[in-house]
Structure formats: C-alpha cells, structure tokens
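Dear Dr. V.,

Thank you for agreeing to look over these. As mentioned in my earlier message, I'm a first-year student in the group and I'm still getting used to reading structure tokens, so any feedback on how I've presented them would be very welcome. I ran two proteins. I've put each sequence directly above its structure. The first is here:
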Amino acid sequence: MVATPRLERTECEVWPKLSPTLGRVPPRGGGDAVLLARLSAGDDRALRIVYDQHADMVYGLAQRVTRDDHRAREITQEVFTYLWSQPQRVHLERGSLRAFLGVVTHHRAVDEVRRVTRRSHAESKAHQGDAVDDVASLFALVDVTLDNGPDAQSGLRPAALARAFEQRTAGLALDRPEPRSPLAAFTETTEDFRALLASLSAQDWRAVPRPSHEHVGALVAHVAGMEQLTRDWLAGPVPDPATVADHLTATAPMVAELADQPGPAVAALWYELAQEAAAAAAAAPVGHSLVAHDLPTDTDGLLVLGTFELWAHMDDVRAANCD
C-alpha cells in the first residue's frame, strides 16, 4: 500500500535537493522528535515551545528576504500555522526542525517577493538578487539568531499562535494517512500533478527544471512519453525492449513531437495518456508480469514507479520556478 502525500505548489518544498549536512542539528535527547510527536497529538504547549525556539530565525529570515516588517510578520504566522497543521511534513532524517522552518520561510518569502514584484520579470529578478536565494546562505542564517530589533516582533507571538489554533483546534490529534492501493496512489498523484500544471504561467512553462530537460514543457512531454509507455506495457502493443531500455531515450520521440506545443496542450496530452495508463492498469490481470525498461515487475510495481516519478517531477517543476 502507498500513502499519497498531498502537495501544494506554493510551498515550493525542495527537501530532496538539500545537502545531507546543511542545517542538520541533531536533536538532543530526541527534542525535535518529541516535539513533533506532541504537535501531531495536538499539544498546544509544543507549538509554544517551537515558536519560542525558532521565531527569531523565522521572522528575521522573512524580513531579510522581503525587506518589509508587515510581510515578515504575516509570513511568520503562516509558517507556524503550516507547521501546526501539518507536522507530518517534517522528516528529521532529512534535516532538523529548524532547517525545515528555514526552508519553508525562505520559499514563502521569495514567493511573496515575486507576487509583489510581478510587474516585470527583470524587476523581479533584480529584487531577488539580494535575497537569500541559495541553500548554503539560507542555512548560514538558519544556524544563527537574527537581530530583529527590540520591538520588531511586538504582539506577534499571540497573533501567530491564535492563527494556528484557528486552523487546527488544540488537543485534536492528526489522523494517520490512510494507505492507498498503487492504482489509487497513481490516480491521486496524477490529479496533484494536473493541478500543479494548471497553475503555471507561460513564463513558468519556459523555466529550466534540470539539465536533462530544456524547459518545464519538455519535462512534461517526457512524462507524457512515460505514461504512453506504461499504457503500452500494460495493454499493448508492448514496446521493443531494445528501443526503451534507456529512460530518457525512450521518451525522446514524444519530447520532439511536442517541442513546439504550448504548455497547456502538452499538459492535456499528458493527462489523457495518464488516464489511459490508469485504465489499462485497472483492466490488467492480478499479478500481471512485465518488463519496464529492463526491470522485471508487475502492474502494481509499474504504478509505484510511475507515482514516484510524478512526485519527483512535481518537485522539479516547483524548484524550477523557485530558483
């Protein structure tokens, strides 16, 4: 069974791209782990402790990026409300709680700068050039207490806590995520990816996600090619293994075919192929064996691989538009 995480583009989470050492401050005596368990159980005292430990860093980082006290106060409230609402998003094997709060703060602050300075791409880039935009600099700030001045956070603590408790009642434990079948996980993740693509602007579609793809449109064309292969592996005609052994080479014809298509058209074709792949999986015999690329697997295994690929490329799309 696969538990499907619900993703939001505005969070711009980039945990998989972080260095394994940057910002990692192991909790003493299980401090972070205990606090997260208490947050999940609805212990409001745990949120007060976390706020008192990290609010200076969160507010100071937000203020440094936005250069605006009002926006920094708003972002501080959003960050602690987000933590209180979804503490399960914190994975201590990837970094400390402080590091997580720093990443969320940074991306929300940069998103706010972009929103305010959307008047022109050049102006937005110029403004962000002075922001803390690389991971190393971000964690250099995360690891110190920023000097915000004596009155910078006056009244902010009760406002932030009140806002968090409005979102989720104190004492209310979070339900554990329900397991999903591989098909359900793939279907739900497809809808998440579709929603993310629908939120992209024309400029977002031209952003560069990673060296192996020219832009986001080409990446989504690659994903469309993967959905086509998934459909064919399940329902036929089965592709010649010699032509699809390499992950990227196998989808190159689809990428070339869609090279001149606008982003929304690429997204529409990808979604159509994803639905066909899901339908083929639903109709496949139980335990149906196959070879995907050069990997022996079955229907469920192929769906799990497809789900993980969608998760990874959602991060790629968000990261391309958060740099």
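The second protein is here, in the same arrangement:
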Amino acid sequence: MKKILWIEDEANVTGLVKVILEHEGYRVSTLRDASNFKTQLKESHADLVLLDLNIGEFNGTVICEYIKSRSDLNNLLIILIAASNDIKQIEKECGAECLIIKPFDLYTLIGTVKAYA
C-alpha cells in the first residue's frame, strides 16, 4: 500500500482528501502544523508528499527544498498544491514533480496521485 503524507493546514480540506484517498487504497498521514515537518517526514515513511504552498505561517517551498536537498528523502515525490500566480516558477525552483492549482477538482487530485504514487 502506497503511503502519502498530506501537508495542509485547512482541516476541512485535509479530512475530505484523506478519506477519499484512503478509499482509493492509499495510507494517508496528515500534518496540519508544519513546525515539526522534519520529524513527520521520517516517521511517515511516505512514498508521496502532497504539499500545500501556504501552511499557516510556513512556506511550503522550504519543505520542498528541504526534501530535495536530503539524500535520505530526495526520492520522495512531491505534488505541490497552491493558489498562487507564481506556481509554475515555484514548482521549478523547489523541484516538485507536479503541481495542482487550487481550487482543484477531486478527480484531478486522484488522477494525479495515481500517476505519481
């Protein structure tokens, strides 16, 4: 079973996506507070990270760059999710495999996860 770490601070979005992805057969861990993301990344043993660009006071690009800079984590696939005009540039700069622009359709999210997980 593929494992996904969903880093998103909006509880209603996190809960809904978690339920849907679990129904699709994925094991989903969620992280709503990015302050301890380093510990959670290691403990989750994730195959894929769904990463919101804006996580409260935290910037998701920092997490993306951290993952891609670490030899023990850089095999993690990252799908960046954001409602930003600069999202294409941000995707290139941080090294994410893919991006989904908010607001997103759940079928698009599921299809994208299936393509990368």
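From my reading of the second output: DSSP finds five helices and seven strands in the chain. The mean pLDDT is 89. Does that match how you would interpret it?

Kind regards,
E.
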